Amino acid sequence: MCARLSAMRDRSGQTVSSYTMEVLVTCCLLLATKGAAGAIAAGGRSNAVYPGEDAAAEGGAEGAQPQPHFILIVADDLGWNDVPWNNEAVKAPHMETLAREGVILEQSYVQPICTPSRSALLTGRYPFTIGRQHGVIRPAQPTGLKLNLTLLPEAMKELGYSAHAVGKWHLGFCSWDYTPMKRGFDTFYGYYTGAEDYYTHTRDWTIGEMDDDTTATWQECNNLYCDYPIVPDQNTTEEKHPYLDLRNNETPDGSQKGTYSSGLFASKVEELLARDPQVPLFLYLPFQSVHAPLQVPPKYIRQYSYIKDHNRRKKLGMVTAMDDAIGRVVTALKNTGHYNNSVIIFTTDNGGPTISAGNNWPLRGNKSTIWEGGTRGAAFVHSPLLPNPGSSTPTLIHITDWFPTLVQMAGGVPPEGIHGVDQWRAITEAGLPQRFLMVYNIDNTTSFTAGVRMGRYKLLVGNPGPGEWTPPPEGIQKIPRIGHPLSDSFTSTALTPDGDHGVNGTDSNAIAIEDEEQQRKLVTEESKEGNREEYTEPHVFGREVSRLLLEMSGRNDTQIRLYDLFSDPVEQHNMAATSTQVVKAMVTLLKELRASIFLR
């Protein structure tokens, strides 16, 4: 591969740009020296200065900077255009202040759907290497996040931290061994499954078999009914069995019926923060908000009365309710003496589902797809310890990176074999980028789909899912974006891929679907008819690429797309047919990555 790169030319006969060559050669050398697995985990320990490093090294010596507190906030199903720093219509003043007085992360990537993102976050590993790449863990599935993996709370506890989780788990509960307090957390308050009622904290299920590998007994699911869900529009005569899914540590808590979840979780965090601020804290706060069902107190909906789409009013009201909860958390941090030595990290878990009023404009696609709209997440870092508050960074970040970043900031060394890289220096010092390479996903569970990023280029293999652009019902807002890569990339709603029509002008936000598995199935069905006009077939790239793709996908007609995200961040122009050498290099890289670290 390295030899081929030395004389790489594009289809027009011109030598590829020096930047492209630099990226390709860098990746090539990493592959040659470390193998493909090393290439995606090549960050190592940087020379950055970390808050708390002296304290960890000196055993908390007097005068040393103490280890920082970490508050890791995850919003559920929050779209790129569902936050105030990307959409001025969103009323979330606490989040906006935190973001604008911190560092806004312009290229922070997550997985396309819930369980894979949470798996990546807490393990520092790409989901396709640990069997969690395909979809969510359904309540009846007798599985969970692999028990032989070290999770982030376990690593933090080894460094002297207390570790607490408040909110959504969704990483398995078929055995107590998979539940939060057996995976490193000292305390847990929240729910195990993927979605439920915001007020009753229950979910309706029917007793029966879904399929052979998802049946479970009452005892096998920790005393929860856990078979298949009732789809909202499905006619059924079977009896519903609502179950309570809210736990205080491991004990069901039936005392909070009628309490909206974001406020409930804020109250539990306030209780936790009453503890000694001298003990370093790792707080994992994955909100239920703003996942379906679309439920929120009416006072929040009224703030968006000018928006005609009722479900969009609800969705943005849910964002504002979550913002109030985050404001309470920050106030508690300040009142208890934690704030001045804290690092707050905020991220969504995937793109917004347009089917339940989420919005990712101007990005293409939505939740469950590997378009930018499904994977490029709203995120920021806020801390009094930041040397560069009030800034933004275009550095490439993946959700796996938070594991090594937090561990190394706390003075530790991450486990070997993880795929995340330490990003603290890139975030705070405008240092050299720590990533040139990122895997969106590799999934051959039902059909082969993969995405890989190398420098400015994004390669998609297979069907990435529906590729529409969905303008927000409240109208397109124009707000200042300092150094924002998307700021000048669009001027109107007239976004279409080459040779196709792609703006979603229908009211696709009118339906709220509660079950993530149904969302994934719907995406699959919609995508069968979409994206036909704009992909390139393997034969264009010659026999070698066709052979590699056939080996990976088992198909001779695999879809190929290549985008330059620096010049085309909204994925409008597939350049695969005119950049054949770049495609060849990236397909070869993808094959090596898959062969080296795909464990299934």
> Per the principal axes of the C-alpha atoms, what is the gross shape?
globular
CATH topology of the domain at 438-597: Arylsulfatase, C-terminal domain
Radius of gyration: 23 Å
Report the span from N to C terminus: 26 Å
Number of strands: 17
Helix content: 25-40%
Number of discrete helical segments: 15
Describe this structure in words.
By secondary structure, the chain is of the alpha/beta class. It has a domain at 438-597: Arylsulfatase, C-terminal domain, CATH 3.30.1120. The chain contains 15 helices and 17 strands. The protein has helices spanning 2-5, 18-39, 53-57, 93-100, 114-123, 152-158, 261-272, 298-301, 310-335, 372-375, 402-409, 424-428, 516-529, 543-553, 580-597, and strands spanning 69-75, 103-109, 162-168, 187-191, 202-206, 240-244, 247-248, 251-252, 281-286, 342-348, 376-377, 379-382, 391-398, 437-443, 449-454, 457-461, 560-564. Strands 1, 2, 3, 4, 7, 8, 9, 10, 11, 12 and 13 form an 11-stranded mixed β-sheet that branches. A hairpin with a 5-residue loop joins β14 and β15 (449-454). α14 (543-553) runs parallel beside α15 (580-597). The protein is globular and about 65 Å long. The relative contact order is 0.18. The model is unreliable at 1-23, 29-45, 206-237, 480-484, 487-493, 499-516 and 526-532 (pLDDT under 50).
